[in-house]
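My current task is to audit a protein record that another person submitted. Thanks in advance; the entry in question is below:
***
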Amino acid sequence: MVIKDDFETGVAPYWVRFAAGTGQIEWEPGVLRLGLAEAESSAQPPLGTAWLSDAQIDDYHERDRRALPWRPPLTMTVRARFSHPVDALHGTAGFGFWNNPFVASGAAVAPNAIWFFFASPPSDMALVRGVPGWGWKAAALNGGDVNPLAIAVGNLLLRIPGVERLLVRAASSYVRAAEQLLDLDVTAWHDYTLVWDRRLATWSVDGVEVLRTTNPPAIPLGFVAWMDNQWAVMRPQGDIGFGLVGVPQRQWLELSRVEISGLNSPPAAPA
């Protein structure tokens, strides 16, 4: 019922560790470091790991999405800091829960996430009116449990000129999102807490509430903490795009504690 890792004696065997490209996973007593060395940019979509630089721990790799280990009600607290201020970081990073909807296999699922999330320009995921499409945020994306066949048909239609924008606009009106930009010194240690219930979710930083929503995801999700060099554009008017951003200097996300407690006891992580 509780996952608690303070990284004092190593990284708990529960976590799946994944690194690609210039991604680096480093440990020292009390700290797990997820970092990127210098990485090149690419205008091509990251269809696999050949171009991607990523460092992460998670508990969803090799699981059936119907058996992802976490669902409400639960509480997550992560103590973390970044190597650089927000305006000097590149790519995406964060920690929390999602269903990993964008995979090279092309498996069709609706996106669902509830987490603390960072994206740098040229990313522009403008999901909530008045909130920039980049930055360090508390965020949720509730795509529901859409029929995979419907998504597969939509993926096929996206290949037809002129249809892409119409489908993206329709999806934007269906997906329920909540976001709040966080204005704080991300290079200092902070305690980030998420309380995820079925009909209400709240995010707090150092005990101060920063966001709440009455429309959180309700389907099973997996935990992830990561840093990578991806960018994405998803605008309500129908613009969509993906690629890899250059990383001009080494950067990282450090964790000193990850604690998750809830009514669901997650199954053991795959070997």
